[in-house]
Specification:
This protein is an alpha/beta fold. The protein has 13 helices and 14 strands.
Length: 401
């Protein structure tokens, strides 16, 4: 039987909650691979088995599994009977014709009732491969590693291990709302929250009617890319240009940026509550721009009642850019657009804003009316991966360890 064997790491530490986390990962894999003809995904002892049709190209499966949070590593494997001679025969056929100079065999026994220990089985299989191929064993730097996993009813072997992204299965940590620009930072922030098990709702503020739809189209593309990690996404598109214009007319120029951000937080929080999100997420990195100084971050956060999570707060631009490359959003993020953050921006924004000053200015605005305007004018877009797949069933909260 041809299959993918999937290993997790962090899930194994979850004590009595482990079956819940395991089943969430199994459900995610079933949704992810259904359109490829995969019909069977099973939780085995300490691992997950995905039974693959013989005609299904491994590269198609590998690309998808590499984006599943909760997966530590995985491999294309073949099942074999719990018999040493059967293992020798199957592994011998698999390694013949491969190009390598040195190899090792690495056995793990999930079922300790198997008569040979892991080391004894390594020696038996390794000696057979030596006789068959004439190649030498190298435990330190092999060109080929034959991984053998002995379970209660069958064994599996594989010849190459692929890295997964790690983390926790999406959905087990509830839902958060990410303020998403078309830049590099916020998509990385969203992906880091997905890796911690959160399902992410996306909220984008654009400058229409004063700018084009360029930033909206860019964000749609970014959200579609990130949907490959969580399978279903919802994006709110908020026309913010008119709200910005009202702020420009009623506030000193130096405070516009902080006022914009506080208004965005209020609108995003209202949408987040409607969507049952427990926190807001931003792509803030300390000191990167005027709105991200310690003083301004504090003033902006005061406008929210929900927690504001900043997963990039201690990262620099190089680190963030490297992660954007890894998750696949960088090339889209650097495309030029007309972002609302660049609309009506003063030449010298305040970097050390005092809360009392902002509150005094805000008394001149009808804040509830502006929030209502943003919420009511929002457009909603939905994204799925694979295309046309139904939305996944929400996870129930996990019990405490």
């Amino acid at each position: 039987m041809r299959c993918a064997i999937i290993h997790y790491h962090e899930l194994a530490l979850k004590g009595r909650n482990r079956p819940f986390f395991e089943q969430r990962l199994v459900q995610h894999l079933r949704h992810l691979l259904r359109d490829l003809g995969v019909k069977q995904v099973d939780a085995l002892t300490g691992r997950i088995r995905v039974t693959l049709p013989e005609s299904l190209p491994w590269d198609s499966v590998k690309r998808r599994l590499a984006r599943v949070f909760g997966v530590a590593h995985f491999s294309l494997a073949q099942s074999v009977l719990l018999d040493v001679e059967a293992m020798k025969s199957a592994i011998g056929q698999a390694v013949q014709g491969l190009s390598f100079n040195a190899f090792r065999v690495s056995t793990k026994r999930a079922d300790k009732r198997f008569p040979l220990t892991s080391i004894e089985l390594d020696r038996e299989l390794g000696a057979h491969i030596c006789r068959l191929t004439g190649k030498k064993v190298s435990l330190g730097s092999p060109d080929l590693t034959v991984a053998v996993e002995v379970l209660s009813r069958e064994a599996y072997f594989s010849l190459q291990k692929e890295a997964g992204p790690g983390g926790l299965p999406v959905g087990i940590s509830g839902k958060v709302a990410c303020l998403t620009s078309g830049g590099i930072d916020s998509p990385v922030a969203a992906s880091r929250m997905m890796k911690r098990g959160c399902r992410v709702l996306f909220i984008h503020f654009h400058g229409r009617p004063y700018v084009s739809r360029a930033s909206e189209e860019k964000v749609r593309e970014i959200v579609q890319l990130l949907t490959e990690y969580q399978l279903y996404s919802r994006l709110y598109l908020i026309p913010f240009g008119e709200i910005q214009r009202q702020i420009v007319l009623g506030a000193p120029a130096a405070f516009r940026v902080v006022l914009y951000r506080r208004m965005m937080v209020r609108i995003a929080e209202e949408l987040a509550r409607q969507e049952r999100c427990w926190a807001l997420v931003t792509g803030d990195s300390l000191g990167q721009v005027a709105s991200q100084t310690p003083e301004n971050l504090s003033v902006v956060e005061e406008a929210a009642q929900l927690p504001i999570l900043r997963p990039l707060i201690g990262m620099d631009k190089i680190e963030i850019t490297e992660q954007a490359h890894r998750i696949g959003t960088f090339e889209t993020s650097i495309e030029p657009d007309q972002d609302c953050c660049k609309l009506f921006v003063p030449p010298h924004p305040s970097t050390r804003t005092h809360l009392d000053s902002i509150r005094k200015i805000e008394r001149g605005f009808d804040l509830p009316a502006l929030v209502k305007q943003g919420v009511e004018q929002a457009e909603v877009a939905e994204f799925r991966f694979p295309l046309n797949a139904p939305p996944p069933v929400p996870a129930r909260p996990a019990a405490r360890d």
